[in-house]
Backbone:
């Protein structure tokens, strides 16, 4: 995956480029808005990571200009501001996701991977499958193998989100944002309890677990057999 | 600047001057108008009288000729206070009358003229060089047969009245100016004295003593109202400053502790760690500690934002009962895992205007606290069932979001205290959390014009967020 980091703090940019390369991505950095815009205009990147406050041209304007020119490369906004309304502003300007600073690299990586694959994603599919687990989005039925699994509405949405991003790490914050639509810190790790409930419903009694905890990052649903 | 100079510069004095000028001009205009009109009126009366006499005398002439006219004129001229008469022949020789020393050429002009004259009797009485001293308004009338008749009235009365009115005008304008200036100075000095007192207080406040208050005279006038409002403002600023100081003290305290821990741990690892595994453990702990710091920091920012009132722009109408259900749904598994029975009682819609995200977070904090503090074992020992109930209620024009638990509760004396930032009661120090949950809930409630109260749940704690239905504007001011 080709990643462009537009970030004026050279240390932070170098750190991100290095970290992305370590996990096997190709990453470049631009240190001001104009350079970043010029590089992004080539359109050869799969994802843009844009700091909001940049010299020469601010992050929101970079994204806005790209969108005007019809370049739809997914963009993740990094911002030190982090308030809900700043987040809304960022998304309205054409950003696809928003992450307040300071962030953990695992959170950023998880979001970047989800964003980059979104275009080829399974958002339109009616039936989601992971191994022998099957979720029907129309009939709201979930079955594993031949066994019907009954889920609460929220559990269904949780599983649906995980299955949409099967094979990708999904962080607790991403779950809280996308399944519950909350953008605050619930202090206690309430998500863990929901996941363990879900896990007991879909994995209990099967030799091959599908729902995995990724240490220090979040969760992932994947077909372990493959 | 001298005291007088300062006085002259006051707004009150300047206003007095403007007012005074306008008033003096008006008085001058009024008296001038009066004087001119009086003069015109007198002139009209004179003209009427003279015209009547001329009509009468020319009638006498028509009836009895020049002889009769001379007799009548002589008789009338002798009366005291009489008009002025002169009958002359064609070439100007006086036949009868009581005036002399007329301005030359008067008799040649038909009609109205103003002229100097001297009365004949006067010259005789006073026995001094005859001088035309008086002024008169006269009309010369050509009688048939070449005779001329002059009738006139003395103008002295008119001039005297005119002068009296003018003098009155000058005096009153002068008095107006003197009294006005004195009054203006007096009022300005009074106002200036009060403003000076205010300025003095302001100076001490600017020097950093926020406890100073502006003097209020108690008369309820505009200066008092201003002072009262400024005092209210100072009160608020002082409270805010006090709050800010407490916050920074608390930040210093509560952030320094984990920062010290962080530093110690890194130092310890550098000094003592022997292998990769130990380094890894130390680094993991460091990251965890910094995550905790970030969390505290974020909570502080949230509170600051709620308290600044910024989030007021972001308010919509929504159903608080829905929030109660959503938050309940989020936390229910956590409570259940701990062995606490968890209920949401919010059946009726409770619509209100507010910031949904912040209110959700406030409620989440209360529920989170309740789950943290309820001790199922302790409850079981007391024979009570551990339970948390979340409710959304309609109460008049307010919406109540309540979280009731069966935990240890909070002693009455500590209730007001725990809402402040960073306060965690000593017994709960071992619990995780930033200690900011209640502060944030309280800040959110205040942002919406409501309040957070802590009550006794017999046993346990009942936290109540009361919010005005119509948003903060209803309760503001």
Residues:
């Amino acid at each position: 995956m080709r990643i462009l980091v537009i970030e004026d703090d050279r240390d932070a940019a170098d750190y991100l480029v290095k970290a992305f390369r370590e996990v096997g991505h190709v990453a470049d950095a631009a240190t001001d808005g104009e350079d970043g815009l010029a590089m992004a205009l080539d359109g050869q990147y799969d994802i843009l990571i844009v700091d909001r406050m940049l010299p020469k041209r601010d992050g929101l304007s970079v994204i806005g200009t790209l969108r005007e020119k019809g370049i739809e490369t997914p963009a993740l906004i990094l911002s030190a501001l982090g308030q809900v309304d700043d987040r809304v502003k960022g998304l309205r300007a054409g950003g696809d996701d928003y992450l307040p600073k300071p962030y953990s690299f695992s959170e950023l990586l998880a979001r970047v991977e989800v964003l980059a694959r979104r275009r080829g994603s399974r958002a339109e599919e009616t039936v989601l499958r992971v191994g022998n687990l099957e979720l029907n989005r129309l009939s709201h039925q979930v079955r594993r193998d031949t066994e019907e699994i009954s889920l609460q509405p929220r559990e269904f949405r949780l599983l649906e989100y995980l299955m949409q991003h099967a094979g990708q790490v999904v962080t607790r914050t991403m779950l809280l944002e996308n399944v519950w639509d909350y953008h605050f810190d619930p202090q206690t790790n309430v998500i863990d309890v929901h996941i363990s409930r879900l896990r007991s419903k879909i994995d209990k009694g099967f030799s091959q677990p599908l729902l995995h905890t990724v240490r220090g990052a979040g969760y992932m649903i994947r077909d372990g057999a493959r | 600047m001298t005291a007088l100079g300062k006085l002259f510069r006051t707004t009150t004095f300047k206003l007095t001057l403007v007012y005074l000028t306008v008033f003096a001009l008006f008085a001058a205009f009024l008296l001038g108008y009066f004087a001119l009109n009086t003069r015109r009126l007198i002139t009209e009366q004179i003209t009427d009288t003279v015209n009547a006499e001329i009509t009468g005398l020319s009638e006498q002439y028509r009836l009895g000729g020049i002889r009769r006219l001379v007799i009548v004129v002589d008789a009338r001229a002798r009366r005291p206070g009489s008009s002025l008469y002169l009958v002359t022949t064609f070439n100007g020789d006086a036949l009868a009358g009581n005036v002399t020393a007329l301005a030359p050429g008067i008799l040649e002009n038909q009609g109205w003229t103003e002229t100097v004259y001297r009365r004949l009797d006067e010259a005789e009485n006073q026995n001094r060089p005859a001088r035309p001293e008086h002024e008169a308004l006269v009309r010369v009338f050509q009688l048939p047969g070449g005779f001329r008749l002059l009738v006139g009235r003395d103008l002295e009365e008119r001039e005297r009245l005119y002068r009296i009115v003018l003098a009155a005008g000058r005096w009153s304008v002068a008095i107006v100016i003197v009294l006005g200036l004195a009054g203006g100075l007096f009022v300005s000095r009074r106002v200036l004295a009060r403003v000076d007192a205010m300025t003095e207080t302001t100076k001490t406040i600017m020097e950093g003593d926020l406890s100073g208050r502006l003097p209020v005279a108690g008369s309820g006038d505009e200066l008092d109202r201003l002072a009262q409002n400024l005092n209210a403002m100072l009160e608020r600023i002082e409270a805010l400053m006090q709050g800010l100081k407490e916050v920074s003290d608390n930040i210093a305290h509560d952030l320094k502790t984990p920062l010290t821990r962080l530093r110690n741990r890194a130092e310890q690892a550098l000094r003592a760690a022997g292998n990769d595994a130990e380094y890894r453990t130390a680094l993991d702990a460091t990251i965890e500690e910094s995550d905790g710091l970030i969390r505290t920091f974020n909570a502080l920012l949230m509170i600051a934002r709620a308290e600044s009132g910024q989030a007021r722009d972001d308010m919509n109408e929504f159903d608080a009962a829905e929030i109660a259900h959503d938050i309940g749904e989020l936390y229910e598994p956590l409570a259940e895992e701990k062995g606490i029975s968890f209920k949401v009682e919010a059946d009726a819609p409770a619509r209100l205007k507010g910031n949904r995200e912040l209110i959700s977070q406030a409620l989440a904090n209360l529920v989170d606290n309740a789950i943290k503090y309820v001790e199922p074992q302790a409850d079981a020992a007391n024979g009570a069932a551990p339970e948390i109930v979340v409710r959304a209620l309609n109460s008049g024009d307010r919406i109540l979001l309540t979280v009731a638990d069966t935990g240890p509760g909070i002693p009455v004396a500590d209730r007001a205290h725990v809402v402040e930032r960073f306060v965690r009661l000593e017994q709960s120090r071992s619990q995780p959390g930033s200690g900011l949950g209640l502060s944030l809930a309280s800040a959110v409630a205040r942002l919406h014009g409501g309040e957070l109260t802590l009550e006794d749940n017999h046993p346990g704690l009942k936290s109540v967020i009361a919010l005005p239905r119509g948003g903060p504007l209803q309760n503001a001011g």
About this structure: The longest strand of chain A covers residues 2-6.
